[in-house]
Amino acid sequence: MSETNDKIDTVLRMRNVCISYTRDKMAVNDVSADIARNRITAIMGPSGCGKSTLLRAVNRMHELYPDITVKGDILLNGKDIMKMNPMEVRRMAGMVFQRPNPFPTMSIYENVVAGLKFNDIKQGRSERDELVENCLRSVSLWDEVKDSLNKRGTFLSGGQQQRLCIARALALKPDVLLMDEPTSALDPVATNRIEELLLELKQQLTIVIVTHNMSQAARISDYSMFMYLGELVEFDNTEKMFTAPSDKRTEEYLNGRFG
Amino acid sequence: MRDKIFKFLLLLSSVLVLLVCGGMVFSLVSGSWEAISAFGFWNFLTSSDWNPVPGEESYGALPFIAGTVMTSFLALVLCIPFSLPVALFNGEYYKGKKIAAVIGSVVDLLAGIPSVVYGLWGFYTLRPLITDLGLSDQGFGVLTASVILAVMIIPYSASLSSEFFSMVPGDLKEGAFSLGATRYEVIRNVIFPFAGSGVFASYILALGRALGETMAVTMLIGNTINIPSSLVDTGNTMASVIANQFGEADGLKLSSLIAIGLLLFLITAVINFIGKMVIKKFS
Amino acid sequence: MKCGVYYRKLKDRLFFLTVCMFSFLTAVPLVAIISEVVLKGFRQINWAFFTEQAPSTLDAMIARNSGSILPGGIANGIAGTLLMVAAAALMAVPAGILCGIALAEKPKSFFSGTVRFIADLIQGTPSIVIGIIAYIWVVVPMKTFSGFAGSVALAIMMLPLIIRSTEEALKMLPSSLKEAGLALGSSYTSVVIRVMLPSAFGAIFTGILLSVSRVMGETAPLMLTALGCSVINWDIFTPSSAVPLLVWEFYNDPNLVDMIWSSSLFLLALIFIFNLISKIIIRKYV
To answer: Is residue A131 part of a domain?
Structure first.
């Protein structure tokens, strides 16, 4: 890190994180990193390098698949996520997936408040309306859907759907938003809008985004991680990493030699 | 040349299927014509007469329709609390796991047991149980028949609906989990709404099965010609009256039994059609 | 808030346990049925059971009174079942496979859709109704109940099952297979017969096995068509017995009641073996 550690407000701290699918196959090997609050951190690397696996471990999504084991510590706001309730962890660290996945049986409105419903958060009607409007405004979807809040979310375009999914995650007021290649299924225009959105959102929360699109990482992120074969090769200021990478493998990747 | 013959054979076999079905409808209609023209279609449906005395012969299907409807719907109600958990167990909780395969084989085996063996088990094990519980004197009746029917349609509805549960896309479930939902909440709010219509269809198809089941019901319903007055009363279903009386029937009575068969054919066809349509809409 | 989380977890847990409990309860009837059939039936299983025909009521009564096991067996039923199922398969298998090929060839045409719909309709028809049909088609014109009438009923029931499984089996083949065959200049017919059918053989054969095991236990349609016969009878145009028919007859005769369990055991064993074989083929084939 180019900045000194004590200056950074760390929201997410990973220490010696190892993740394995089966006993012999290590997907993530001994990764330690501190993620700064209200910054965008990009995780890059060729496919299969463990970047998604690492991201998913942060809100304990790996527990859906019993073969995956996670070792090491992940601290969210100083608390060990493994000692917390998984439902609470997931509320504090929202997730946006590769393919937009609004719930097809729910309306746009219901999609936004789905998290509240799951978490038994009771709110008054007007309060909830306000929340929906705020969330949809912050993903700049409000003007496009305000007249069709009761329609199914699946009628929206891909980019709109993905923004709806971001709004859905925002409704729970998470500290961290984990994004797993959120634009890989979208066209360039929609991708552009999401990127702009992320730059606005970082005022409110911390974003960790997995991407295999280097220029995207260069455009939006403050910090970048480069992972290769399950190892964290380099973690630095994005500008520094893209101009003067300290590891040879990073340089090769950034120059398009592999991946 | 050989290609031509082969293609002709392909066409012929397809036409054969259509002919078989057409022939079935034709035979049922012409076989039941005597009864329908004697009593009138509507009258036949709504009459509860069953009088084989020569000269005053009069037949109606109402008691059997009532018996069929009562046993089938009761069986459906009894089957849901068992088949739904099995479907969730196999299609969601343990999808693709060994234990699901084991339960799946058990379900397959249950589906393979012949109706007459279910009937025997019902007669020798279930019926005494119903008597011991003091529900009825002999243990025969609508309830006994429905319980055995329920056992018979559980495998069918369970394996069908578990397929619909397993078709729910993983990323939807992950989306819900990522919002902090528990498994139960995911099932209630994502899986049930998504797979709902398919699961509904599998119960409709199971109902179609129950309507036409013959042997087990015949052995347990008591075979009395009356509209069952309660769940423990005896009665007859459309299928069981055919099985019971076809052997010694002729003339008008035979035609009436065939008319009941036609009715059964139409009802199951409609029920199956609805079920298939719902599934088609689902996918 | 904390309390809410625990409450939700508890609900989740309870729901899961309920699901498990009811799932395992579903296996209870299976265990009960099989154990009853095996425990009550195995005593009657001996050599004579497979080689001799069903005992008369009188013989059975004498044996019962002297406390020994019933004499005789179910050879007449086995012969009848064998004859009828074989005849039914002879009718249904070629027609079903051809029709399955036709459906797989033009899966989207209106005609195929109609045929598929009709096949579904036949499959959903209650077996007793199919019994009536075979009665009208065969028993009435031939003026006698016969094994042939029974096999017609069974064939109608097998037909849609074989069509469906053949179509599914052919659909699973990669389309490149057919194209490769045609590219080599072989005729359409030989591609289907030499390439497609052999590649799909396992799946098609499984479908046939399952359809046979499905109709083997059918009783209701045979009551209206084959009627039953007390001696071993290989003439398909006269009344014929069948194992499930014998179960029904034994059930109705208090003196022969001991035989129902052994006959059911035989039937169950046969059906389970067929299912097992098809499972093995599926595992090896897929």
So the answer is: yes
Under the phi-then-psi rule, with left for phi > 0, alpha for psi from -120 to 50, and beta for the rest, what region is B14?
alpha
pLDDT for position A32: 92
The residue of chain B with its CA nearest to that of A57 is: B178
* Residue A259 within a domain: no
Mean pLDDT of B212-223: 95
Residue with tokens 């209609």: B29
**What letter does residue B167 receive in the DSSP assignment?**
T
pTM, full prediction: 0.90
Spell out the domain ranges in chain B: 61-282
Q: Which residue of A has its CA nearest to C4?
A: A120
Q: Mean pLDDT, chain C, as a whole number?
A: 91
Instruction: Tell me the count of A-B CB pairs closer than 8 A.
Output: 71
pLDDT at A2: 43
Contacts of B182 in chain A (CB under 8 A): 87, 118
What's A228's domain CATH number?
3.40.50.300
A vs C, Cβ pairs < 8 A, gives: 10
- Residue showing tokens 């999401």: A194
Q: Which of B13, B212, B258 sits opposite C126 (nearest CB)?
A: B212
Per-residue pLDDT tens digits for C41-81:
988 888 888 988 888 888 888 888 887 888 888 999 999 99
Which residues on A lie below 8 Å from C8 (Cβ)?
Answer: 87, 120
Q: Which CATH number fits domain C75-285: 3.100.10.20, 3.40.50.300, 1.10.3720.10, 1.10.1060.10?
A: 1.10.3720.10
Residue C21, judged by CB atoms within 10 A of its CB (0-12, 13-18, 19+), counts as exposed
User: How many separate domains does chain A show?
Assistant: 1
As a CATH number, domain B61-282 is 1.10.3720.10
pLDDT of residue C286: 62
Most C-contacting residue of A90, A120, A121 (CB-CB within 10 A), to test interface: A120
Strands ordered across the beta sheet of A93-96: A93-96, A176-180, A206-210, A40-44, A223-228, A231-237
Instruction: State which residues form the domain around A24.
Output: 5-254
- The residue to which tokens 């009536």 are assigned: C132
Q: What is the ipTM of this complex?
A: 0.94
* Subunit contact B179:A103, Cβ cutoff 8 A: no
Interchain CB distance below 8 Å, B116 and C247:
yes
